[in-house]
């Protein structure tokens, strides 16, 4: 991701429904921890998730392949380092929480990246992963974003368990918007919509994401999958 696009994302993400939804999902997961600890955000971009972690009392480290992303994260006060998801410049068993949000679908060798997530977690540590799901939704839009795959629920579970982690939960997002996004993305090859949305449209999309938090919607097919797993021990 280039510097111009990173700065465009940084400008809109505080109010944009999609980024707000991802921050809300992270905040909800953090409430499961009685005591905050150390966390790493892999593929952190401008470090927004690290700032959410810090608000909840965590000591967070950002890792991204892009020097521009690292620079931007540091400018926002985030501890950030340049690094590849397949070869993390981090000690083994050093973190209580590892995030890989919208990262693995961009990595050719996702098995190695998953193994690195497991390696840096302490025994008993938690991994939180999100990915684009369902190859039936594959389009020129995915190519434009640099994705190399979309995951089925089974493929994501197999990837995580193959790294030696124990899957605790897998759930869907983008369930209510799946038909709309499928139609729209097969008509365009643009990258993610980074232009500011009309406030009413933005709010409708945000509310649709809120409704998806209620069971059984999270078990229905969507556009994204989230998974929570832990390192045994």
TrEMBL record:
Annotated ranges, domain Methyltransferase type: 40-128
Keywords associated with the record: Methyltransferase, Transferase
Annotated Gene3D superfamilies: Vaccinia Virus protein VP39
Keyword flag Acetylation: no
GO biological process, one term: methylation
GO terms assigned for molecular function: S-adenosylmethionine-dependent methyltransferase activity
Protein name: Class I SAM-dependent methyltransferase
Species of origin: Actinomadura decatromicini
